[in-house]
Design goal:
Elements (H helix, E strand, L loop, with lengths): L37 E9 L2 E6 L4 E2 L2 H8 L5 E10 L8 H10 L4 E11 L2 E2 L5 H8 L10 E3 L2
Parallel strand pairs: 5-7
Antiparallel strand pairs: 1-2, 1-4, 2-3, 4-5, 5-6
Length: 150
């Protein structure tokens, strides 16, 4: 992951890892992420200041997710995940996510894949398996819009 210095309101942008196409799935024990029909996004929290930023470093404004991010127990955290809108069967739907922009009445979730920073400590050099174990320490039962996926 490459870190950049410019991001909305002083947050340091971290470029998320992207999938690589392969001819054959490698053998062995691999960690993976399900591809949801949504927007890959970094979630930043520094006290009461919160932001959602696209993988292209563009601000994303989803008030219900920003409000949920404020409720996470960690004071300072950076998460990597996917913003998704869910249909009545709980499946992600990009079409519903697009509708949110015009109507706002669509239920959203943020699937958390990775914990990049916690309380000011950069975790990017730690193995993904170790970071994923720490993701749950960022959660609170009242923050139902943030779903750990790991």
């Amino acid at each position: 992951m490459k870190q950049r210095t410019s991001a909305p309101n002083g947050f340091s942008f971290i470029e998320p890892m992207k999938a690589l196409p392969v001819e054959k799935f490698p053998e062995g024990d691999w960690l993976y992420e399900i591809k949801f029909d949504g927007y890959r996004a970094l979630a930043f929290k520094d006290g009461k200041d919160v932001r959602l930023v696209s993988r292209n470093n563009k601000p994303l404004v989803y008030p219900q997710l920003l409000d949920a991010l404020k409720k996470l127990p960690a004071e300072r955290v950076i998460l990597d995940g996917e913003i998704a809108a869910l249909d009545e069967k709980g499946r992600s739907s990009f079409q519903l996510l697009q509708l949110f922009k015009s109507s706002g009445g669509v239920p959203l979730v943020y699937y958390v894949f990775d914990l990049l920073s916690l309380e000011g400590k950069d975790l990017c050099k730690k193995p993904l398996s170790a970071r994923r174990k720490n993701v749950k320490s960022c959660y609170h039962e009242n923050v139902s819009l943030f779903i750990y996926h790991g």
